[in-house]
Write a structure and sequence with these properties.
By secondary structure, the chain is an alpha/beta fold. The protein has 3 domains: 99 residues, Cobalt-precorrin-4 Transmethylase, domain 1; 110 residues, Tetrapyrrole methylase, C-terminal domain (Methyltransferase, Cobalt-precorrin-4 Transmethylase, Domain 2), CATH 3.30.950.10; 51 residues. The chain has 11 helices and 9 strands. A 5-stranded mixed sheet has the order 5-6-9-7-8, with helices on both faces. A hairpin with a 7-residue loop joins strand 7 and strand 8. Helix 3 packs parallel to helix 4, helix 6 crosses helix 7 and helix 9 packs across helix 11. The radius of gyration is 24 Å and the shape is elongated. The chain starts with 23 loop residues before the first strand and ends in a 5-residue tail after the last helix.
């Protein structure tokens, strides 16, 4: 967790709330970079919890030390979750209050914790969220893309074949798509997105709220060309929905430019006029006959050398 160049925050006084923290499980959001991005309620919960369950005790320990909080820590991550979960559930059964945090951001969002929450609910324990920062929402806010409807996808598969199948299943989505990605896989993922989703508007947000925060906006093809190597840090990719909108009752969505861009993307992938028309009509809600006529016209404009 990188400390941004701000004045030090005052240590949390650790003053108790009016009432003690009730027994139960508390998923607590922590900063995604800037340590000031933590709520007063989160600090109170971490200070009062009988046990703080975290991915890496060293990471969470630094955050707690930053605010003068002493807490009992227990590691809970993808590697030890099956072993640790029974002991945590026993603590809840004994009437303890347990705070659940990830290394950064909101727990359970592409982080461990789902099974623990599920089992705690099944056992009848109190589960109460302490909300706060999430990288996916922060990236969406600065992307410049529609925010009224969006779908969080998380990490794509690392292998190309499965990644392409995942993207093909998303090709007809009209809402904004949000992906998490690692630096070494970013360029390959952007190329696959441009190839399968078409050259849509997108944004790549890297190291949000940290010292070297960077947001690049452009088309998927432009961004794929811009990221040659493996950038450092945590990365969120935000991609516009197909044809820029939702199909409506009047028979489709998207401007003529949107439809043309989708048709040309299909041609660039080597698809026939018939296949392109089927795919674009299916994903946008436009009448197939209308799309087919436009695809046929654009195909003729390309000339034999481009076909």
């Amino acid at each position: 967790m990188t400390e941004p160049p701000h004045e030090p925050a005052a240590p949390h006084p650790g003053a108790p709330l009016a009432a003690p923290l009730a027994p139960g499980l508390y998923p607590v959001a922590t900063p995604i970079g800037n340590l000031r991005d933590i709520t007063l309620r989160a600090l109170d919960t971490l200070a009062q919890a009988d046990l703080v369950v975290c991915e890496d005790t060293r990471v969470t320990g630094r955050l707690l030390a930053r605010y003068g909080i002493a807490a009992r820590l227990r590691s809970y991550n993808d590697h030890n979750a099956a072993r640790q979960r029974p002991a945590i559930l026993e603590a809840l059964k004994a009437g303890k209050s347990v705070a659940l945090v990830s290394d950064a951001g909101s727990p359970l969002i592409s982080d461990p914790g789902y099974r623990l929450v599920r089992d705690a609910i099944a056992a009848g324990h109190r589960v109460e969220a302490v909300p706060g920062p999430t990288a996916a929402i922060a990236a969406l806010q600065v992307s410049g893309l529609p925010t009224d409807r969006f779908r969080f996808v998380g990490f794509l598969a690392p292998k190309d074949g499965k990644r392409r199948r995942q993207l093909e299943a998303l090709a007809a989505e009209t809402c904004t798509l949000i992906f998490y990605e690692s630096g070494p896989r970013l360029a390959a993922s952007l190329r696959a997105m441009a190839d399968i989703l078409g050259d849509r508007p997108a944004a790549v947000a890297r190291e949000l709220t940290k010292r070297y925060e960077e947001v690049r906006r452009g088309t998927l093809a432009d961004l794929a060309a811009a990221w040659d190597g493996a950038p450092k840090g945590e990365i969120v990719v935000v991609v516009g929905g197909v044809a820029g909108g939702r199909p409506d009752a009047r028979g489709g969505s998207g401007t003529e430019e949107d439809i043309d861009a989708l048709i040309r993307a299909g041609f660039a992938a080597g698809d026939s006029v018939r296949s392109v028309a089927d795919a674009v009509a299916g994903s946008t809600g436009m009448p197939r006959r209308t799309v087919y006529r436009r695809a046929l016209a654009l195909s003729r404009e390309r000339g034999p050398a481009d076909r």
